[in-house]
Every structure is written in structure tokens, then in C-alpha cells.
Write a structure and sequence with these properties.
With 308 residues, the chain is an alpha+beta fold. It is built from 11 helices and 15 strands. The chain is globular, with a radius of gyration of 19 Å.
């Protein structure tokens, strides 16, 4: 996997012909009548010829970089403080709760990954029974929500109308395999924003596109029936992850902010020098900001390939 500069299957391709045009198509001054399939064919040709492989990656945070890639890595004293607090909470979680969650996972690679829902309305009853811990979680939620929203605003995102729909603690145990390329949700994905706050490290970040949002656009389909060119592009991207995705080393308090239609995947745990040095399982806090308040909207990963 290159460095970033420092279950349920469905198909989605976002927007109309102009909104899904790649930068390659845009540079040709396409007309309003340019078909979607022609644009996707251009993407496939560019990727196969090596043009797509020349894209740069986002290495700094800011509105310009976020607008180009639809994601950005950020760090700040406020985020580090939140990470330290949540790591203490994660380590105080009842061990039988984590064990029960792992036992619910019966298929690789998910048998080394677990999550605990932290929203009041959907939190595990065993967690609610831990009164002191539950109270601390609620206090931490408010502070973290404010810190995340402040950073989203700094990235040029107006989140005043968005709900903090999902908040989860993610636990990855040693031996976890690499995830399939996926999106976290399907409906209104381009209006939603996810946050991954790394609680301990150094470790390897989630893998995100090394290409611009325009270059990766054909991977995101609307509907359940993909055209042949769309299938071909998705197959190419998923088969050549090293050319289309990148990771970076992250430390406790680093965070990844990304739009809901950004493809990504979790790396194999223990595969990098940083992970080996850490010698601990990884904890990450995940938040989803959405116009929909439902806490179940990300329950199923959206896979760009039918058989992924």
C-alpha cells in the first residue's frame, strides 16, 4: 500500500452526467449531452493507460484539499485530548461485552473486528448498566461532538443541519485481515461525513483514495444494475488497490474526516512496522454526521463489486 503523502452489495453512481464527469472528461469541454457511459469508459481507459495512477494524494488538511479529495487527515490538541479520554473509556469497557461482540462475528475477516454503539437510544444494555461508565460516555460525547464539528467547519463543511447519527467504538484485534473496498452507507452519502479518531498508535491509517474525488467518481453507482464499463472500472480499482489507495502512519489523536461517498478499507492489522511496534489492539472512535438521525443507516457496508 502506498503512503498518503505523509455484506450488503449494491451499486451507486452519483448524480447526472456532468456531476459524475472525471477531470479527464471535464478537460475535453464535454457538452451537456455527454453520456455517463462515455465518461466511465474514459475513466477506465485513463486507469489502464496509467494516467489515473499519476494522481496525487491529500497530505495536508484544509478546505482546498478536502474539496479535491473529499477527505482530509487532521490533528490538534483538542482531538488528542478527546482520543486520550476515549482510550481510557475503551479500556474500561466490560471485557465480556467485547468477547460477546467478537463471538457474534463468524466470518473472516470480521472475526477480529468489533464495535460498540454509544448512542443513548441504541447502546448495549450491559453498557448502560455500568452507570459510572455510561455517565462518562455521555459527557465525552458532548465534548467530542463539539470538537468534530469545529474541525468540519474548518474544512469548509456546514454541519449545522447534520445530526450526530452514529457514534461507535471500533476495536481491531491482532490478526485482522484487510477489508474489502467499501462505502459506509448508500442513502444521501454525499451529504454525510464520517470521522475516524485514532485512539492509540502509532498505527496505519484507514486506506483512502490516492486519486482525486473526480477520478474515483465512477466507483460510486446509483441503482442495482451496473453497466459493463462501470463493472470494469470497479474491478480494476479493487484489483489494483496499491495504485488507487494509500495509507499513512497515524498517532493517537489523529483523525480522518471523509465524505460518505469516499471508498475506503481497513488495512490488515499487524502488517506494518508501526502496528508491530504498537503491540496492542487498535481502538478507533467512529462518528457519522448525517441529515438523517437514524443510528442504523451504516449497518451494512456498500460494496462496489458484486462478489467482493
Amino acid at each position: 500500500m502506498t503512503s498518503c503523502g505523509g455484506r450488503h452489495t449494491c451499486r451507486v453512481l452519483q448524480g447526472q452526467a456532468l456531476t459524475v464527469s472525471l477531470s479527464l472528461c471535464l478537460s475535453l469541454s464535454v457538452s451537456l449531452s455527454l453520456s455517463l457511459s462515455a465518461c466511465v469508459r474514459a475513466a477506465v481507459m485513463a486507469a489502464e493507460s496509467g494516467a489515473a495512477a499519476s494522481g496525487s494524494s491529500a497530505s495536508t488538511s484544509g478546505p482546498i484539499e478536502f474539496a479535491k479529495f473529499n477527505y482530509a487527515f487532521s490533528s490538534s490538541p483538542a482531538l488528542k485530548h478527546q482520543a486520550d479520554n476515549w482510550l481510557e473509556i475503551a479500556e474500561k469497557m466490560p471485557k465480556d461485552l467485547w468477547l460477546a461482540l467478537f463471538n457474534q462475528r463468524t466470518k473472516a475477516p470480521d472475526n477480529h473486528r468489533a464495535s460498540i454503539q454509544l448512542e443513548e437510544k441504541s447502546a448495549d444494555q450491559r453498557l448502560l448498566a455500568e452507570q459510572k461508565l455510561h455517565t462518562r460516555i455521555q459527557q465525552a460525547r458532548a465534548a467530542t461532538d463539539a470538537a468534530f464539528r469545529q474541525q468540519l467547519q474548518a474544512l469548509g463543511i456546514d454541519c449545522t443541519h447534520l445530526h450526530t447519527a452514529v457514534l461507535k467504538l471500533l476495536y481491531t484485534a491482532s490478526g485482522a485481515e484487510e477489508q474489502a473496498v467499501h462505502f459506509d452507507l448508500q442513502v444521501k452519502a454525499d451529504q454525510c461525513y464520517g470521522v475516524l479518531l485514532y485512539l492509540n498508535g502509532p498505527t496505519t491509517s484507514t486506506a483512502v483514495p490516492s486519486k482525486t474525488a473526480a477520478e474515483m467518481q465512477p466507483l460510486w453507482w446509483k441503482g442495482t444494475n451496473a453497466e459493463a464499463d462501470e463493472e470494469k472500472f470497479a474491478s480494476l480499482v479493487c484489483a489494483k488497490k496499491d495504485e488507487f489507495f494509500c495509507t499513512r502512519q497515524v498517532n493517537a489523536g489523529d483523525a480522518l474526516f471523509f465524505r460518505g461517498d469516499v471508498a475506503h478499507f481497513g488495512p490488515k492489522w499487524g502488517s506494518s512496522k508501526a502496528n508491530v511496534q504498537a503491540k496492542v489492539s487498535r481502538f478507533v472512535l467512529y462518528a457519522l454526521f448525517s441529515p438523517d438521525a437514524s443510528s442504523t443507516q451504516d449497518d451494512f457496508q456498500v460494496l462496489p463489486l458484486k462478489d467482493a
